[in-house]
Here is the input.
Amino acid sequence: MGNTELWLNILRRLQPTIMKAHFLTWFQGTAILDLADGVLKIGVPTVYSQNWVASKYNLKVLQAAQELNPEITAVEYEVKGDLENGGEGVDVQNIFRDQVEKKVRKVRNVAEVTVRKAGSDQAVTSQMMNSRYRLNNFVVGHDNRLPHAACNAVVNMPGGIYNPLYIYGKVGMGKTHLLQAVGNEIVNRYPDMVVKYITAEKFVTEVVEAIGKRHMEQFKKQYRNVDCFLIDDVQFFARKDSSQQEFFHTFNTLYEANKQIVLTSDRPPSELDDLDERLKSRFAMGMVLNLLPPDFETRLAILQAKTSEFGMLIDPEILSFIATNVTTSVRSLEGVLKQLMAEMQLFERTATLRCVAEIIQRMDKAQKIIGYDFEEEGQRKAVRSVQGAIEAVAEYFGVTVDDLVGESRKQAVARPRQICMYLIKQELQESYERIGDGFGGRNHTTVMHACSKTAALLKKDLRLVRDLNALKREMGL
Ligand code: ADP
Ligand code: MG
Here is the structure.
């Protein structure tokens, strides 16, 4: 640790024990001049401060110094005139700035933070950002490279060419993550910049409140201090007229002052149906990017990153099983891992494919998480008929339709037949009779038997779970 760093650390320890005004008066422009034979020599700007610090604070300084370097046995003070104003003396204001930043980071579950720009008395409230969201822990794959790169560009040069930056994508794709990551990086890199993060929903509430309390002027004023405005889920502006108006003004004011604006939404600007045309065209003025669902490799990479983040050890085969089946959103991937972690801890079990398959099925029931790849969306129509299902299953297992509806009792045919009946019952909700008809006029009890047998097998046969999921995907269900 260099002398400057050591002195800053000593001062950071001292600061909470001394009144702010005193601390500023006596330690501004001080520095370590020398450290030899256990004697720490501190330079102070004037004789007056030398006497004062030596008599009032010596013990505290010594204690703090010893905590950091036990070899220090004494502290001496020497007057040195050229420490301040560009000299080697520290600017203790920085310590308070650090402190504020730390506090901001500490307040975890608080919904809002207040930031104040140096030299301004107008406070700006921002919704709390999650400090876990960073650009460097956003896993970059083929389909999300562009939005990530654009966010990096914004951080490197706020108010530059990517302004406004508009990112849209389905739920759980990482929009909020990226948006808040931009905020976190800017706060870190440019401590003087004021960042405001807010959801469109909250913005609407704030406008309504400001109007009700007749605080409109104050409301407008705080935005004059904002350097980086991050607004999440702008689709929530729909049909809220007065807030749209207000947002329009805010947007223009900031944009004209070259302030950075980043917006997210679940759809492109052109599809924001209830939004003022002027706003739509302004949203599209800078850069509009689509955050696409991650492909298999990216899903796997995300799972690997999350497991190490959560401190879990999981078989690669299990991760790949999750990545194959859970394709609807990154949030669901995370959800499965969290659930898995909870069960591992709760029941002290190790993660097995079976356990994961159960979790996925359970979660999929509550909220669809097993999906098919979005790239294929729209190209394929869901199979909804008995005949269609029979064809799909036959193709999947490499048998003919005739085999499937025929009489053969061979395992290679009989098993797919039972699976097919189960699938039709479960997914298409056909009656046992109609299913029986579809399979060459079989009796409904045969169908019932096939369904219950398959259901029982599903509890222990993982390949079957996988086959069924794959089939459902194939059929677009
Ligand atoms: P959205 O706002 O689009 O609905 P979120 O930003 O809330 O989605 O993302 C959901 C979860 O998935 C978050 O915990 C986020 O950290 C995580 N996530 C999304 N995309 C990625 C990614 N590419 N890398 C790492 N984590 C991601
Ligand atoms: Mg979000």
Observations:
- Residues 411-428 form the longest helix (18 residues).
- The beta strands are 31-36, 39-44, 74-79, 112-116, 123-127, 165-168, 195-199, 228-232, 260-265, 287-290.
- The chain has a mean pLDDT of 86.
